[in-house]
C-alpha cells in the first residue's frame, strides 16, 4: 500500500487534475517563467550583438589594429624540398635535381616580366614607396612595385632553365616574411643578405654570387600594407649562386638579413632574420 501511495504522489506531482498543475506549476506560472527566460536570452543576444558591432567598428579591413610581432622578420628559402631544409642531389642523376628546377620555375612564374608589367608599377628605386591615407579617406587599393624575374640574372631561369643544378652551381632564392608597415633599413641603406658556411664547413662553401648585386632588398618594396590593401604585392627576392662549393660533402650554410635597424638576434626566436640549410652535391655514380 505504501508503494501505491508513493506512486500516486508522483502521478499527482506530474499532473494534478484538481489544481490543474503540471510539475507543481499552473499554466500561467509556466508561461511567466518561459516569458522571463525568453526576454532574458533575447537581452543577452542583443548585448552580445551590440558588443560585437562596437568592436568591429574599431577594426580596419585592410590593416590590423594591433600587431604583436618580432622585431626581426623571418626568412625562407626556395626550393624547399621538405621541412628538413636539405638540398641534396647528384649532378649525374637528372631526376635528383630536376624537381628543384621545377620548384623554382613554379615559384618564379608570378615574377615573369609580362605579369609584373601588367599588374604592377615602375617605382623609384632606393626610397620607400609610401602610400599614406588622407585622414578618413583610405588610399586603397594601393599600388605595388614591379619585381621582374630578370633582376635575378643567372638565377632567373631564363638563360639557364636548370638554375645551375645540372653543373653543380645551384641557385637558391631567399625572401623575407611579410610584415605590415615594416621599414627595413634607414638613412637610405637597404637591407641585404649574406650567406656563409657554419664554422665546421668554412673551407667548403667556395665563392658566392648574389642577385641583385650585393644581395639587397630595394627600399622601394617597403612598406607592405597587407593582402587586402595591396593585392598585387610582389615580395622582393635575393638569389644566391654557389659557384664552386665542395662536392660529395655536406655543407651547412646559414643566410641572414643585415640592416642598420633590424636586430641580428632575438631571445624569443633564435632563427629570426636567418635561415639555415644543408647543401650536398654528389658527383659519383
Give a description of the structure.
- The chain has 285 residues and is an alpha+beta fold.
- The chain has 2 domains: 2-58; 75-282, Sandwich (Immunoglobulin-like), CATH 2.60.40.1660.
- The chain contains 4 helices and 10 strands, in the order αββαββααββββββ.
- The chain has helices at 2-14, 27-57, 94-108, 113-119, and strands at residues 15-16, 21-22, 75-78, 86-90, 171-176, 192-197, 208-211, 238-242, 251-258, 274-282.
- The chain is elongated.
- Keywords: Cell membrane, Disulfide bond, Glycoprotein, Ion transport, Membrane, Potassium, Potassium transport, Signal-anchor, Sodium, Sodium transport, Sodium/potassium transport, Transmembrane, Transmembrane helix, Transport.
- It is found in: Cell membrane; Membrane.
- The chain crosses the membrane at residues 30-56.
- GO terms for molecular function: ATPase activator activity.
Tell me which oligomeric state these chains represent: single chain
Number of strands: 10
The secondary-structure element order is HEEHEEHHEEEEEE
pLDDT averaged over residues: 86
Strand arrangement within the widest β-sheet reads 3-5-8-7
Give the strand content: 15-25%
Kindly, what is the distance between the CA atoms of the first and last residues, rounded to a whole number of angstroms?
98 Å
Structural class: alpha+beta
Radius of gyration: 32 Å
- Which second-level CATH architecture of the largest domain applies? Sandwich
**Residue share in helices?**
10-25%
**What's the shape?**
elongated
CATH class of the largest domain: Mainly Beta
- The CATH topology label of the largest domain is Immunoglobulin-like
Strand count, sense and closure of the main sheet? 4 strands, antiparallel
Amino acid at each position: 500500500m505504501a508503494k501505491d501511495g508513493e506512486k500516486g504522489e508522483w502521478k499527482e506531482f506530474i499532473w494534478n487534475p484538481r489544481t490543474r498543475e503540471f510539475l507543481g506549476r499552473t499554466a500561467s506560472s509556466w508561461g511567466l517563467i518561459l516569458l522571463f527566460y525568453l526576454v532574458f536570452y533575447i537581452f543577452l543576444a542583443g548585448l552580445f550583438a551590440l558588443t560585437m558591432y562596437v568592436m568591429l567598428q574599431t577594426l580596419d579591413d585592410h590593416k590590423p589594429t594591433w600587431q604583436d610581432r618580432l622585431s626581426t622578420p623571418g626568412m625562407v628559402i626556395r626550393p624547399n624540398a621538405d621541412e628538413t631544409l636539405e638540398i641534396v642531389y647528384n649532378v649525374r642523376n637528372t631526376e635528383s635535381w630536376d624537381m628543384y628546377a621545377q620548384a623554382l620555375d613554379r615559384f618564379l612564374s608570378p615574377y615573369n616580366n609580362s605579369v609584373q608589367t601588367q599588374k604592377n608599377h615602375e617605382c623609384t628605386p632606393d626610397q620607400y614607396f609610401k602610400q599614406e591615407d588622407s585622414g578618413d579617406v583610405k588610399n586603397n587599393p594601393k599600388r605595388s612595385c614591379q619585381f621582374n624575374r630578370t633582376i635575378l640574372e643567372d638565377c632567373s631561369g631564363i638563360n639557364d632553365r636548370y638554375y645551375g643544378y645540372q653543373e653543380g652551381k645551384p641557385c637558391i632564392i631567399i625572401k623575407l616574411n611579410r610584415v605590415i608597415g615594416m621599414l627595413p633599413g634607414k638613412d637610405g641603406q637597404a637591407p641585404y643578405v649574406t650567406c656563409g658556411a657554419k664554422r665546421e664547413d668554412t673551407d667548403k662553401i667556395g665563392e658566392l654570387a648574389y642577385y641583385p648585386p650585393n644581395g639587397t632588398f630595394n627600399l622601394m618594396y617597403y612598406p607592405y600594407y597587407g593582402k587586402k590593401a595591396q593585392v598585387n604585392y610582389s615580395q622582393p627576392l635575393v638569389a644566391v649562386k654557389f659557384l664552386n662549393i665542395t662536392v660529395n660533402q655536406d655543407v651547412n650554410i646559414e643566410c641572414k638579413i643585415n640592416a642598420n635597424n633590424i636586430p641580428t638576434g632575438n631571445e624569443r626566436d633564435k632563427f629570426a632574420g636567418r635561415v639555415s640549410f644543408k647543401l650536398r652535391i654528389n658527383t659519383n655514380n
